[in-house]
Inverse folding.
């Protein structure tokens, strides 16, 4: 029986999509790259994302070692997110997606 290339587990693109794929993760990473580091800032910047979904996506990114989470013992509590060294290696991919969207995608969003 012939196995799919993706099912073999040897596809690096599939591995990347597994980590940063989905509706919100790349947008979240894009904002964190631009120093939007607090939960409330990120939530405010992404129209249509629920707090529950944002929390889940941030936890997954943290579990994969892409972002770090720092909790400050203040009242009210302050939580900030930052790119890890591993996460910073994704910047060129995220910025390439931004550049492509500026050049070719903006007209499609307007339609």
């Amino acid at each position: 029986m012939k196995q799919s290339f993706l099912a073999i587990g040897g596809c690096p693109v599939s591995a990347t999509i597994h980590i940063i794929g989905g509706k919100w993760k790349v947008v979240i990473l894009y904002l964190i790259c631009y120093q939007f580091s607090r939960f409330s800032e990120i939530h405010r910047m992404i129209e249509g994302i629920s707090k529950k979904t944002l929390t889940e996506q941030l936890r997954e990114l943290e579990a994969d070692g892409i972002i770090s989470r720092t909790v400050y013992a203040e009242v009210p509590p302050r939580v900030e997110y930052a790119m890890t060294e591993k996460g910073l290696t994704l910047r060129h991919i995220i910025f390439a997606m931004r550049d492509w969207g500026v050049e070719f995608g903006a007209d499609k969003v307007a339609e």
About this structure: Strands lie at 67-72, 78-83. The first strand starts at residue 67 and ends at 72. The longest helix spans residues 91-110. Residues 11-110 form a domain with the Arc Repressor Mutant, subunit A fold (CATH 1.10.10.10).
